[in-house]
Amino acid sequence: MERYQGALLRLALVYARSREVAEEVVQDTWLGVLQGIERFERRSSFKTWLFRILVNRARTRGEREGRMVPFSALSGTALDPREPAVAPERFLGPDHPEWPSHWAVPPKSWSGSPEERLLARETLDLVGHAIAALPPAWREVITLRDVEGWTAEEVCNVLGISETYQRVLLHRARGRVRRALEHHFDAE
Length: 188
Fold this sequence. Notes:
The chain is mainly alpha-helical. It contains 9 helices and no strands.
């Protein structure tokens, strides 16, 4: 429990509107583990099995309470091909003689060392708010990959999605978080 409690709670918060509901989902997950441990067949890692239980319980709870947009409803807006992760005008054209399709306007330095900026509470809060504002499918993937440090394979197994779809969701989520950071630092 000590190893996974924090990560379970962070992922449950993706689905729940309050910390209390997320804590209940985590508690229900642990009850599910206790009730089903004898059926654990080791076809996946314990971690994958545990988080799959959490995702299933969190989705069920969210749908029951009407606090979650069904995953299928997100496909039209979350993967809108008209919204690029990075604005196309930031790249050189494919006909550029020396650097086709490379950055024309690369990401700006946010001054100071990266460590100073990342350790700043304001920046961490901004990242947290940007992630919280993402569509649920994007939030799931970026939380597991970038906050929890999971591999692509682990995320795909827990969420039951293809690696290609996981990459698209992660790319879009990172792009939106980056835009929020750029907007913040450009305003300074």
